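FIELD: query
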Amino acid sequence: MAVGVHAFYEAVGLMVGAEGDERRRNEYLMRLMAPPNSIWAALMQQASALPDVLKQPDAIKSITHVLATNVSVCSSLGPPYLHQMQQIADSMLKLYSAYADLIAAEIASGGPHAARSSGVKYMRGVKRSVLRLVEVFVDKCDTEAMEALLATQYVPLLLDPLLGDYARSPPDASRLSPLDTR
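FIELD: result
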């Protein structure tokens, strides 16, 4: 069923992108993204109050689903997706860092085999989803103005959460690429 939902969001993203008036396009985008943004906001609020909620399978599933929805819209909408990215970028990168820390803690307490546990695999799936959204967003930002915006605003934000995660990860976690699906 999730594939159908994501196909719907991708199709509506194409329709939103066809709107020539930027103000209306942004309004349509925010209306389209209202349900996933509501879920996202609730999850981020819960996680800030009780960080262990991020370990719960339902939370992981919801977060992954919301990120996949964002990937679908971004892939079809292209540069106008910037308006949505601005809404979630900060919390998305904090979430990435939180999962990096949770994974490191699981491996530190559970030893080398913990890196292959189902909990760690699901948490790594969230990190993979964040990376996928960043990848699609960067790929779609193919205008000179968007590339300049990426270089000045987003690349500095990405450096510590992404590269810092790799540098700080325990050996058992860093040996596994975030894109590794095993």
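FIELD: remark
The two ends are 24 Å apart (CA to CA).
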